[in-house]
Amino acid sequence: MVNGKHQSPVKLGTQINKGEWIAHPYIAPDESYLMWDVVRGDGHGKSDIYISFKSKQGAWLPAVNMGPLINTDLNESSPQVTHDGKYLFFSRGEWQVKEDGSQNWGGESYWVDAQIIESLRPKI
Hints:
This protein is mainly beta.
């Protein structure tokens, strides 16, 4: 918002919009980083959680895979940080085919210390 008015959406660049499936963005309350899940060739499995930090100039830096503590050979998705900034929650699972041929998501929720975010922040 600028002067209390909503602005037109701005498309994020290829450092964010790269991959086969891009979903579930989470932006930090201070807007210093953005996390989302995406399917990319450089991932650990199916969908992985990536993070991008905002530079001092306001540009989004290249995406970083959050690594094997978060990402596995399954689908990781839906990252969220608690309001106090202490914990990162996310989902891990996979699509399962039922007897009738339809699919449903079979997964569980996980949490880790949100310090993992700071460990990935570029040292500028």
